[in-house]
Amino acid sequence: MTVLKQRIYNLLNNILQKTKNITTKNLWGHIVLFCTFLLMIDAVYLFFILQKDFSKFNLERVSSTLGLTFMIIAGILLTYKALFFCYSLYLYIKYKAIPSVSDKELPTTTVIVPAYNEGKQVWDTLMSLAESDYPEGKLELLAIDDGSEDDTWTWMVEAKKKLGNRLTIYKQPENKGKRHALYRGFNIGKGDIFITVDSDSVVNKDTLRNLVSPFISDEQCGAVAGNIRVLNKEKYLLPKMLDVSFVLSFEFVRSAESSLKSVLCTPGALAAYRRDAVFNCLDEWINQTFMGQPSDIGEDRALTNMILKQGLHVLFQKNAYAYTNVPEQYRGLYKMFIRWGRSNVRENLAMSKFVFKNFREKSKTGIRLLFISQSLQIIMSYPFLIFMLFFVISHPLLFLSSTIFSILILSTFPVLFYAKKYKKSESIWAYTYSILFTFGLFWITPYAIATANKRGWLTRSLSEKNR
User: Fold this and answer.
1) Is residue 111 part of a domain?
2) pLDDT at 124
3) Coil, strand, or helix at residue 314?
4) Which domain holds residue 344?
5) Positive or negative: CA dihedral 212, 301, 277, 109
6) Which ranges does the record mark as transmembrane (predicted)?
């Protein structure tokens, strides 16, 4: 009887503890959202009552040659961004995902899952892939442990026991990086299509067949980007914000790029490549260097660049979902963005070498506009950083009110976009994310430019997981 009472006590205690955690998280989330709206309301109020101060500030800028030059350049860039947004909106409306083809038409496919220090998550990834609605005879699953320091290999072995011949596993003798793990998979795989899936991601049942269908309908298709959502968004606040950001980045931006057949980056979490396209640039890709150092980051963007350079199409499939884990704390978040920022700098330089040449038979205007838009964000990062610091020092109240008011205006589109497609209650995290990015991550691009030659994944070690 005593043992039974103890078990009941432990069960109730666990339930209460979980309820407490959920309540605390929800309460903290509501507090953050409330503070976000309070901050924006105050900013709007200040923006309108400080109109005279804004007019005075603008007159001071116009009266100097440097200030006038900056304002003209800023006006031109703002006009360009507005026109480019309208162009992107038109392309988004034009975009249509390609329907899945029949089982008979589906190509032979090799799915490659590189893993490093993922623990049990790699099991979940492999099980979700094995449950895919894809003919078993046409699907090859490869999992490659890139010298993990935890129990990743143990979970791969367990997955192998369950899936048998459907899964083949390999272990790298030492940690060489994701690019080398994928390289091994490309050389081993027998499929006409390669699919790469991160080991911290899971996919829907119809994801794989939806992802490869464009290769059947478009003979010039060299790669396809999947639609990435956040897997761990119920746990912490940062993943909630990132989920809203991902929806805009993929379902709006990549949809627009896909209408031009020029998606600039196929995500490592879920992407598909035509075998011939990969092998046409495989040696260049694995031996890629930057400023004399081997490239160990940005393998997805680099491979996309090299496939675009061949004149092939790169598309986006909105109906091919993968759900991936993202950093849950600020430390992991900024390290992830630094890695992405460095990759953008490197690959924009690489893209500049071919994008204005005759690399593709049909129109190249669209992809050139995409390149210019992305390059401008990099080029103007230092001038705007200097202006921002000057603005903060000289007119802190004007800076705060105008910046947050701008966030309110510009972030309304992501809010409405997410609300139309998914939960309205979650869409408002776009405002909070924009405030975080503006005040907490503004330094990423300038820092990434200054340290573009640095190597390292930054978030791969066990001590860095989810930081």
Assistant:
1) yes
2) 96
3) strand
4) 95-372
5) negative
6) 27-50, 70-93, 369-393, 399-419, 431-450
User: 25 pLDDT band (50/70/90 cuts)?
Assistant: low
The answer to whether residue 408 is domain-embedded is no
Query: Which residue has better confidence, 460 or 307?
Result: 307
pLDDT of residue 70: 79
Q: What is the mean pLDDT of residues 78-101?
A: 95
Contact present, 431 and 80 (Cβ < 8 Å): no
pLDDT in tens, 26-37: 777 778 888 888
For residues 25 and 102, membership in a common domain is answered with no
| pLDDT value of position 16 | 41
The more confidently predicted of residues 9 and 260 is 260
Within 8 A by CB and 6+ apart from 361, the residues are 311
Establish if 295 belongs to a structural domain.
Answer: yes
Q: What is the pTM of this model?
A: 0.89
Radius of gyration for the chain, computed over Cα atoms and rounded to the nearest angstrom: 24
**Same domain as 149, residue 15:** no
Contact 112, 182 (CB under 8 A): yes
319: amino acid identity, one letter: N
| 5/100 same-domain check | no
Q: Which two tokens stand for residue 327?
A: 């950093």
Domain count, the chain: 2
- Residue 50: how many other CB atoms lie within 10 Å: 17
Q: Strand 289-290 to strand 293-294: parallel, antiparallel, or no bridges (unpaired)?
A: antiparallel
Here the CATH number for the domain that contains residue 260 is 3.90.550.10
- Beta bridge partners, 112, equal 142, 196
Query: Any idea what the Cα angle at residue 303 is, between residues 273 and 148, rounded to 5°?
Result: 90
Residue where a domain terminates, one of 372, 390, 416: 372
Please indicate, yes or no, whether residues 191 and 337 belong to a single structural domain of this protein: yes
Q: How far apart are CA 274 and CA 110, in angstroms?
A: 11
User: Which of 372, 391, 418 is a domain's end point?
Assistant: 372
Question: Could you tell me which of 313, 330, 363, 412 has the C-alpha nearest to residue 40?
Answer: 412
